[in-house]
Amino acid sequence: MASDPANAEPTPKPREPKWRSLFRRSRSAVFVLGGNRRLRYANPAWEAATGVSPAKLRGTKISASRTPASPLWAALAPPPEVWRGESARVRRAPPGADCGPPWWDASYLPLRGSGDKILGVIGTLDIVGETPPRGAAKLPAIFETLRRRRGADFTFDLLVGDSPALVRLQSQLRWAAEKGAPTWIVAEAGTGKESLTRAAHTVGRERERRFVALDCRGLQPYLLEGLLFGKGGLASGRAVGTLHLKNPEKLPRDLQNRIAEWCGSAGGPHLVSASAAPVAEQVASGQLIPRFQMQLAMLEVRVPPLRERFAELPRFLMRIAPSPAAPGEEVLRILRSHPWPGNFHELAAAWHDALRRGGGAPVAPEHLPRYVREHFLIASSAQTPRKLPGLDAVLESVERRMIARALALSGGGQAEAAAKLGIVRARLARRIEALKLARPPEPNS
Amino acid sequence: MKAPQLVLFSVDDWLANQLREVAAEHRWLFRESRQFGAFAKQFEERRPSIALVAFDPHAVRSELAEAIALLASEHPEVAIVAVSGSKITEDHLPEWTAALLDLGCRWVLYPPFARPVLEDVLSGAMGALTERMKWPGAEKAIDLASGGYEEAP
Question: Is the pTM above the cut of 0.95?
Answer without folding.
Answer: no
